[in-house]
Amino acid sequence: MPKTTRFHHLTIALVIALSLMFAGSAVSKANAAPKYSWKLAMTWPTNFPIFGDAVQKMADLVKVMSNGEMEIRIDSKNKHKAPLGILDMVKGGQYEMGHSASYYWKGKDVNLMFFTTMPFGMIAPEQYAWFYYGGGMELMEKAYSRHHVYSFPGGNTGNQMGGWFQKEIKSEADLKGLKMRIPGFAGEVLSKLGVVVTNIPAGELYTALERGNIDALEWVGPSLDLNMGFHKIAPYYYTGWHEPATELQFLVNQKKFDALPEYLQAIITTAMELSAYDMYSRSMNDSAVNWDLIQKDYPDIKIRTFPKEIIAKLKIENNKLLNEQAAKNPMFKEILDSQRSYMKKVRNWTKISDYAYLKDNISE
Amino acid sequence: MPKTTRFHHLTIALVIALSLMFAGSAVSKANAAPKYSWKLAMTWPTNFPIFGDAVQKMADLVKVMSNGEMEIRIDSKNKHKAPLGILDMVKGGQYEMGHSASYYWKGKDVNLMFFTTMPFGMIAPEQYAWFYYGGGMELMEKAYSRHHVYSFPGGNTGNQMGGWFQKEIKSEADLKGLKMRIPGFAGEVLSKLGVVVTNIPAGELYTALERGNIDALEWVGPSLDLNMGFHKIAPYYYTGWHEPATELQFLVNQKKFDALPEYLQAIITTAMELSAYDMYSRSMNDSAVNWDLIQKDYPDIKIRTFPKEIIAKLKIENNKLLNEQAAKNPMFKEILDSQRSYMKKVRNWTKISDYAYLKDNISE
Q1: Is A284's CB within 8 Å of B126's CB?
Q2: What does the alpha-carbon distance between residue A98 and residue A250 come to, in Å, rounded to a whole number?
Q3: Given this structure, which CATH class describes domain B28-156+246-284?
Q4: Beta carbons of B159 and A271 less than 8 Å apart
Q5: How many angstroms separate the first and last alpha carbons of chain B?
Q6: Alpha-carbon distance A15 to A17, whole Å?
Q7: DSSP-derived secondary structure for B49-91
Q8: Which of A31, A228, A277, B358 lies in the 20 to 30 Å Cα band around A69?
């Protein structure tokens, strides 16, 4: 064998070895195809602001922190056509991940409604403390283990407004027969006071309120209400009682998560947790900016809070409904008791900290 | 050259190449020595709860998310002996990172005091919105670029209590000559009302208050005050006005950060941001739990808020001091204006959201 051939053999061995080396290196040093390609289904439409941006932020963080090893493709409801089928699709493994809100699963499993927000419940900083330091995450894991998925906080809207009303609510009598769009458990509570609760698709809400098919509706707050345009057609904007800290939710298929290497589990978990907190800051900002815009363009919008007698009555009906359910469902009772006892403590702290401070720094 | 020798050459090439490949792989698959070993200096002593735990959480996240590629060693003040030298040590490169509070650098660069908290300023959720969505991060980067370090939020204590007092403060006259430990800019403001402001090392505070060498002191809030034991020797616990959202701070040497690969920059940045938010939830929880303990063991502790006339006077003196500085320092003015205009908007939102809600859900 001539010298050149020997050299050639050496070269081939090196080229193979080096190309293997670079292939290995490429996986951890990006550019190559990702080693893990996941799909996420979300309840929201394509380009839905704030909610959709939080999901995108999570996916971007996973991609950059894993140096391209892991990618998560996001499918909106426009693609998968099942906005309220997220839990089932993640459970069944069609999607490794989902993004939705836990209270949407109330009909399937009533215990899951606690992990979004509760009427007269905790505000966002209190609720985050409950999730991460007050036993909330453990209870959520326990409740979701029946469905073989992991659940994580997925972004907070902040305190939601009580809704847009065509007429001022001065007494309980004004609620009797009032047609209002308000979904979920809060709707159940309001219906006990005589409100006729309806559910109407988002795209038809403006017209329904304008034409008088409904007398009132709740959506989110200035952060997302501005684009809906309700301030152009309803003069009263009520403060909230029903969703003081709406937390969205990431869902992850247990088997798929458990099969990931530890560092990717840590990367995903951290990306979800940060995106959730970040959405709370984003919501705070967008609510502030949009409320300012609404006030400038529509200075006659009137902020109202329900009269004390109505608030008191709503609290009674709320507790009645919760206690009824707790009497027949031990896990429901366990979660309810945890939230009630935690809120008592944390609200005592809020009272002498942020609340006492705000009293001196807000002009009525 | 005999055949065996040629084979030998091939083998060597393969062994070298393969060992390089596995070395590369080992770095990204843990167990090996970390590729990046950084050191962090913090202002706090060894085992300092909450603050120190937030730093540890950040370092743990970096290690697990980088799969062991990067480690950060934490030096407490017991080791480096320079609790207030963190900015200089990170700037000088002796440490790649630091953990401290931005208002400690007021004497070196008065513009840096804005990034912790300000008397009568924003509460934590408002301030996070300012940092991440209201221009705060950009202003912080601008202010710190003079010092060649990057600065990041490093954990929030929540609203700090106004302090422990031996006597009730009923009017401005009660403040004249009152000896109080309260550091920083808030001390400057209080001194305008006749308070004799002193600074006393942490370890001597309890004895100073017990023996009457001081009449009052502020520390943090129940989360950290409980261990100090002040509730055993002072009957009045005043609500806060001076530090509504104390945010600690991570510092990173610019050159060291810029030299990291993009995915490690993302991992560190995400770990810092999450640890900061997480410390806010931890502080909320520990304040709630510890305040509950204090109330149970010392039910006679009286919560007080300064009379309206004093609050009004403090606001006037606070604004006077800030405006004086703004008149001679354009960057100071830029940051002050940003915080003031943002707070106006975001407080209008807080007023109709969390504040309106709490008013209906807190019994006085």
Answers
A1: yes
A2: 6
A3: alpha beta
A4: no
A5: 97
A6: 5
A7: TTHHHHHHHHHHHHHHHTTTSEEEEEE-HHHH--TT-HHHHHH
A8: A277
CATH of the domain spanning B163-242+300-328? 3.40.190.10
pTM reported for the whole predicted model? 0.92
Residues of each domain in chain B carrying CATH 3.40.190.170? 28-156+246-284
Residue to substitute from A277, A310, A319, A338, interface B, most B β-carbons within 10 A: A277
Contact A266 B64 (CB under 8 A): yes
Per-residue pLDDT tens digits for B93-139: 999 999 999 999 999 999 999 999 999 999 999 999 999 999 999 99
The tokens describing A322, both together, are 């919760």
Tens digits of residue pLDDT in B130-177: 999 999 999 999 999 999 999 999 999 999 999 999 999 999 999 999
| B294 touches A at CB < 8 Å | no
Residue among B270, B345, B357 minimizing CB distance to A65: B270
For A302-319, what is the HEC assignment? EEECCCHHHHHHHHHHHH
In this complex, the residue of B266, B270, B289 whose CB is nearest that of residue A345 is: B289
Contact A133 B286 (CB under 8 A): yes
Q: Which CATH number, 2.40.50.100, 1.10.287.600, 3.40.190.170, 3.30.565.10, labels domain A28-156+245-284?
A: 3.40.190.170
CATH 3.40.190.10 in chain B, residue ranges: 163-242+300-328
Distance of CA A137 to the CA centre of its chain: 15
Percent of chain A with pLDDT over 90: 89
Which among A133, A158, A347 has the least Cβ separation from residue B353?
A: A158
Under a CB-based contact definition with an 8 Å cutoff, are residues A98 and A40 in contact? yes
**Cα separation values, A163 from A133, A159, A177, A361, Å:** 32, 12, 17, 26
